[in-house]
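Sequence in, structure out. Go.
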Amino acid sequence: MTSVQVEEHHDEHGGNGVVQGSSGEGEGYQRGLGARQIQMIAIGGAIGTGLFLGAGKAIHKAGPSLILAYAIAGLVIFFIMRALGELLMYRAVSGSFAEYAREFIGPFFGFVTGWTYWLFWVVTGITEVTAAAQYMQYWTHDSFPQWAYALVFTVILYGANLISVKLFGELEFWFSMVKVTAIIGMILICVGILTIGFSDAGDTATVAHLWNQGGFFPNGIGSTLMTLQIVMFAFLAVELVGVTAGESKDPKTVLPKAINTVPWRIAVFYVGALIMILSVVPWTHFQPGVSPFVAAFEKMGLGVGAAIVNFVVLTAALSSCNSGMYSTGRMLRDLALNGQGPKFFTRLTKNGLPLIGTTASAAFMLVGVWINYQWPGEAFNYVVSFATISGMWAWIMILCSQIRYRRKADRGELPQSTFKAPGAPYTSWFALLFIGMVIVMMGIDKDARISLYAAPFWAAILGVSYLVLKKRNPQAAAFNKRKTGVAASSDGGPVTKD
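Output:
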């Protein structure tokens, strides 16, 4: 069964119902995302402006030791993705993080996760469309207003997400292809410089730059630790592949393959690229706010480097905004299906698209157009602060849910996943401790601390909203296993439906 009928369920006592779907993996969506698209969505999620732009600041802080930071953080990301994969193979559903948090931790955490992940992508969409508008100024030199670019990009991506999920997948495929091609091209050029010695950097390029310019930890291990929040920000959105579960063709085969490519993606696109760049150009030549790719191209004497990188980061920003359009509509629908959001968000078009949820999210993203109109020079900084902490909340919920699921599966209360996370639950606990350390580092770093200030306000809003929801609709505050085929017995244990 690849789709379900969605209907409003009223209990036998006439209480407020929760909009539910029958057991089935499609949830009314169309499975329009093939293996080729899922693979590139997984790759693209791990490559964003955090690498192309943010790495310059991180290199300036940590020097060559940033390579180690990306390697360790990449291992943690793999643990997170394998934990997500185990849950997906247990129950592949769209809106997966909120669903798992709701089932294994509690309805309140599902509520918080769903709305926080929605806010994460709305905020990210605003920041990325703002960044894309700024990148366009490189070619137009203020001849076209920045706010107008933001509006055009928002409308185009919104329209694309209303046509079909397949078109979304195609856009992500080609956006990711641009990023992948750029990084592989840079690596090959650097390999040529190191082996053949061509270009202006040929005479000085050497892998000894990794330890000859003040050592591998030139500013101390503490400085390397302080870059971890920049490093983790670069990996945000890698979990997006989980949101595609309800619209993937053959998810039981495609999703594990996509998740298992995480180690080599990080090894090549982050660790490999940084090793090559820092071997060709000493780390002391990089400055905050300047893309390491642009600096490397300039050192090589390739004048087109700035234009190339500008085009790549433009596609990276548009890719992120496109992902935001996609995921927000699905997350709002998942919340509505569980009675934790307005019921009208459950409606789908004849193409299986959450029109109302996507439209509402796009409307919030249009706030970015107004911000670009009012403050074009500072727009990006006004809206970026909350993205990192809200994105990491999803990772925390994935790990906690997987730990609880594994415990129940081992007791025989739930079926075992066909894609178990190796080393779990110990790897999941390690990942949780690592994320906790990153949050502590964010609190110490005055530049990143603002990300933590917004969290209590958002938590207060969600707390009050949940209390109101619980009073108005008690069923929405009690987990209903609407997609599992398992009902709760009176003593809290599972009762399998025949």
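Check: Residues 1-26, 481-498 have pLDDT under 50 and may be disordered. Strands lie at 6-8, 19-21, 486-488, 494-496.
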